[in-house]
Amino acid sequence: MTQEIRTFIAVELPEHVLVEIRKVQAALKRHNLNIRWVLTENIHLTLKFLGDVAQSEIGRILETIEKATDNLKRFSLYGKGIGVFPGPHRPQVIWVGVKGEIDVLEGLQARLENGMESLGFAREHRPFTPHLTLGRVKGRLNRALLLKAMEELNDFQTKPFSVDSVVLFRSVLKPDGVVYTKLSEVLLEQHEQQQA
User: Fold this and answer.
1) Which residues of 45-80 are buried (b: 16+ CB within 10 A; e: fewer)?
2) What does the pLDDT read at residue 139?
3) 131 catalytically annotated
4) Catalytic residue flag (residue 89)
């Protein structure tokens, strides 16, 4: 019997961005909202959730990631603003938005989506909305208080960060929370140095 592991494809965030996000989470936590916060070190930019995958499939998945990133140069993103899914009338997930070279990011995500579909993974039918999940509502929530807290952080913006690689992560659910382990990393190309 083949062992399965829970996996997803994502962009890892640099420490300086996680520090800024930690401050935003702390500002939101002060409002005592009924939210289960994501551990800051676990925050990432998900490109494709794969779910349970046979270990024997990992090689094909990595080949597909390499193909999707072929000739892709490093690009720049930044976090901006606070939002909620599915919307302000029924907030379930609180997140930081992602801006910057979104056309490059969306192209990468579309190539990954198409590549994974060719391997038999279900296509995500919701439009890709790049975001960094801060927390999830865990019961009754004072919606007005959440929206007020979000408004206070409306101008939040991280410093830009370079997307240097795409990572295949393993996700293990444990009693004290989820643990993410990097299975493999595909590096993006550096830009050519300009001669002065």
Assistant:
1) bbbbebeebeeebbebbeebbeebbeebeebebbbb
2) 87
3) yes
4) no
